[in-house]
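Ticket #4471: structure output looks truncated?

Reporter: J.K.
Steps to reproduce: submitted the chain below (338 residues) through the standard prediction queue, then opened the result file.
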Amino acid sequence: MTQPVRYRPDIEQIQPDEPETFEQLNEQFRKILDTTSEDYEHAVRAVHAKGHGIARGRIRIAPGLPGELAQGLFATAGDYEAILRFSTNADDILDDSVRLPRGVALKILNVPGERLSGSETDATQDFIMVNGPAFGAPDPQQFLGNLKMLAATTDKAEGAKKALSAVLRGIEAALEAVSTQSTLLSSLGGAKPVHPLGATYFSQTPFRFGDYVAKFQLVPTSSIKDYADETINATGRPDAIREAMNELLASQGGTWELRAQLCMGLEEMPIEDASIVWDEELSPYRTVATLTVEPQQAWEHGRSEAEEDQLSFSPWHGLRDHQPLGGVNRARQSAYRF
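Returned output as attached by the reporter:
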């Protein structure tokens, strides 16, 4: 077996214009936040603004992992409390008929170990994931271009967004028929309206994995996996996803596997291009932990909004052994403070 790529600081290729690009990204995030805060008379997240469910459970680090997987948080078998937040990726709190990618943020609590810079007062390990294997931009410059477009459409007519969503979904469905998908079309409103609990989620970007480098995946393994292709009809139901989440999570709960995909070669699995899907034949995702959520209410009006206000998630909340890597992740370090 080919050995995984070992982490070293020069695995990243930092560009000289990054500080300027990051500041421009932050300006766009500020623009979004100013607009939405005025609209809702309350601060909301600059991305993934609308939450559909919050769940509490426990994550168990698998015992007896082989050396290349027994790294960082996963070096020792253990059991931790965890919090999940399910969302869609818009900066507005939109009617659920606008079809957007699903996201999940996983926070593991009371994690010991050396912390990332800026996370010294935390005791968590966060994972931010979306139900698609590739990020919508390869690098910070393209990320900035996409964000400018997002900021320009924040607070624009929701009816137009619904109409655009329907058109884009038709185009995306045609691409799916020939086994092709467009990350950009999905992010603009052409995503398949899948059930969040049945979806498989990806970190999309690479992270340090102790001595190595990896991407992460969260996969449903209990009977909720049967909902992988289940779609939610949100016509005339602005909060249809919350309703569907409540119905399924309260009756079944759920179990997921957290998996890691080790980088086996920097040419085939680049660090600095977040739009590249790493080849699973070259390096399959391998299970490092199991997450269990007992049956519970996913969303309760009033209580859940208050809980959301108390929760923050960032790929930079975590252990030094799981440092986010690549330009897109470096851009997120300051952006996720907004």
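Triage note (M.O.): checked the attachment and the full token line is present. The helical segments are 18-40, 140-153, 158-177, 183-188, 240-252, 303-310, 327-335.
Status: closed, working as intended.
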